[in-house]
Amino acid sequence: MRLITDQTEIDRRGAALLGRAGEFASVGGVVGTGFDAYARILHPVSRHDSGDDEVSWADVAAVTGATMHPQVQWWAVLGRRLDADHGDSYTVELPNGWHLNVEYEGEMPPALLTALTGVLRPFTTPDDVTVAIWGGWGELHVDGNVDLSIGQTRPAIHRDIDPAIGHAVRHGPHFAWPARDMILFDATLGELADPDYGYRARIWPRDWRRGPGPNMIWPIDLSWAVATEIDFNWTLVGGTRELIDTILADDRFEAFEVSETDEMTWASDTVN
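^ thats the sequence. predicted structure below, dont judge the formating
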């Protein structure tokens, strides 16, 4: 992965997608409009009561009695009401004794990203993709071993992050996706298939389990786009009918078909 620091190249890579940005907090507003079809891939949650394991939203809904559907929201899966005080929805104990932790908000789990790159490959010509990462991740606001987000010297692990990345998130140039300034990288699907891509690209400190992942990915021909909004614990994919059908049929993904005008907010779960 190569950090892109030239504004002209950023504009060239992002112009077509930026021109297709839809209404904020809708599917098209997160991943772009104009694709033939869309899929919503839910991120698994961690279960820690009997060792470390991952469970699907459907597994949790089977315990709580929630109804799974394309616009289901996590509060509903937990069996809560929209107008109730949700409290902590990230570290949760269910009545059956399950201890759950939502770990993948704003980033796609590495195993799912690896699986998705394999699905995307036949639909990409050439294997030349752009990766966008939100510039607001605190982990990236570093310069050597100084964490600029709090103005204090931090452990040497911060030296693992490329100082050019810290400079780019603070000073640009940025890809100005609506409400989310991003820094861009030139990458290949092969690089993203490697679970250690973030270490190799010097985005993640070596002593951390992981760091910020791609918030958007798209190929040069814009035949598809992938987006993980920073406040969502799911990923959206827009692409051809064949691509989306392939994702929906793959049991590695807990996925639903959605449309570009569907709202993606807590209030959009009208079923539960």
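The first helix runs from residue 7 to 18.
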